[in-house]
From TrEMBL:
Residues 77-342 form the G-protein coupled receptors family 1 profile domain. Gene3D superfamilies: Rhodopsin 7-helix transmembrane proteins. Belongs to the G-protein coupled receptor 1 family. The chain crosses the membrane at residues 61-84, 96-120, 140-166, 178-197, 239-261, 281-302, 322-345. It comes from Parambassis ranga (Indian glassy fish). It is a multi-pass membrane protein. Keywords: Chemotaxis, Disulfide bond, G-protein coupled receptor, Membrane, Receptor, Transducer, Transmembrane, Transmembrane helix. It holds the Pfam family 7tm_1. This is Chemokine-like receptor 1.
Length: 394
């Protein structure tokens, strides 16, 4: 299985213990998932257990280190961003976007100690069924909320560059807050199935070890062919839906927005010079998100396709068995990287060293002056021109 839903070690990936759930769905790996459905036991985790002990231990240690690092840096970094954008800075459209992005990352990293504990206890889940459900749901809530906030940021930037006058008249904090609320509602809806299907149960190897896994049948019946087919259908549906709605479609929109922005900036050099800093910061955030999450989605897709074929590849089984934990760890790191990007790209490094954290973040998040608005309204009045120079946002 994939690791995200099966395990809660990151809520993405399980490891050497057995679990009842589907193979490709979030973060646990099993063998012959789509092979002999009548004989398949969702709790088995043969692929992972067949790895050499040294490699398995190395993957576990890597996961513990990454989860712990993401927790410390993510809670502190995103906590600072929330404090600054929520309480220390003047409310603007940009600060609303970045505040919501930081809240999504903060929620996710705040739950990482559960994953650290789960991994450290050799994948024994001591926190109960509710926390098993909540932990994984928060993980996917973070993924969906983050990617759709990035979509909103990209669309907002595109509108501000292409239609600066309209943006100046219609962009405001109240509307930005409403859009952000809509994003959270959509993310909650998309992540709610994980709360429904997540379950806990004893490992098939040791009844004293409780696993956190995906129970797509919503029952203990893992032998009836019709139940197994239902599990497979639900698993495939969720995996494909997540891949399309959590990755392909959002990044298609983002890339399209930035293609339009780049085209417009090439035609207006003065606009480009004033848009370079915020453009680079937002582009860096989006690229980082893509690089961190793309390997996970690719691994899940490879595993899904491999096990939907009549003859699954043993090589691909081992690739995903090893690759999913690594891809999961990389995805976790994304939640602690944005605050670092704000600092190191907000202004020159020497200035960052001398200035306080507040000033650094203010520099990174401040609304930019739009000369295009001045240029567009140059025929109106000199008074409106002066106002556009000071107020317009790119």
């Amino acid at each position: 299985m994939t690791m995200m839903e099966l395990t809660s070690s990151g809520p993405f990936y399980l490891s050497n213990n057995n679990i009842t759930t589907s193979k490709s769905d979030d973060f646990a790996t099993n063998d012959s998932f789509y092979g002999d459905t009548e004989e398949y036991d969702y709790r088995d985790d043969h692929d992972y257990k067949d790895l050499p002990d040294d490699l398995r231990k190395s993957l576990n240690i890597m996961s513990l280190i990454v989860y712990s690092l993401a927790f410390v840096l993510g809670v502190l970094g995103n906590g600072v961003v929330i404090w600054v954008t929520g309480f220390k800075m003047k409310k603007t459209v940009n600060t609303v976007w970045f505040l919501n992005l930081a809240v999504a990352d903060f929620l996710f990293t705040a739950f990482l100690p559960l994953s650290v504990t789960y991994t450290a206890m050799d994948f024994h889940w001591p926190f109960g069924k509710f926390m098993c459900k909540l932990n994984t749901t928060i993980s996917f809530l973070n993924m969906f909320a983050s990617v759709y906030i990035l979509v909103v940021i990209s669309a907002d930037r595109c509108v501000s560059v292409v239609w600066p006058v309209w943006a100046q008249n219609h962009r405001n904090v109240r509307k930005a807050s409403g859009v952000s609320l809509g994003v959270w509602i959509v993310a909650l809806i998309l992540s709610s199935p994980y709360f429904i299907f997540r379950d806990t149960g004893p490992s098939t190897d040791d009844e004293n070890i409780i696993n956190c896994f995906n129970n797509f049948a919503l029952s203990d019946d893992d032998e009836t062919p019709s139940v197994i087919q239902l599990q497979l259908f639900r698993h495939r549906a969720m995996a494909i839906t997540r891949f399309l709605l959590g990755f392909v479609i959002p990044f298609t929109v983002i890339v399209s927005c930035y293609a339009v922005i780049i085209h417009r900036l090439r035609r207006n050099r003065s606009l480009a010079s004033h848009s370079s800093r915020p453009f680079k910061i937002i582009a860096a955030i989006i690229i980082t998100f893509f690089l961190c999450w793309a390997p996970f989605h690719i691994m899940v897709l490879i595993e899904l396709v491999n096990h939907m074929s009549n003859y699954s590849s043993e090589i691909l089984d081992h690739v995903t068995t090893i690759g999913v934990p690594i891809a999961t760890s990389l995805a976790f790191l994304n939640s602690c990287l944005n605050p670092l990007l704000y600092v190191f790209m907000g202004q020159d490094f020497k200035d960052k060293v001398r200035k306080s954290i507040l000033n650094v973040l203010e520099s990174a998040f401040q609304e930019e002056v739009s000369r295009s608005y001045t240029y567009t309204n140059s025929m109106i009045t000199s008074r409106s021109k002066e106002k556009s120079v000071s107020d317009a946002e790119v």
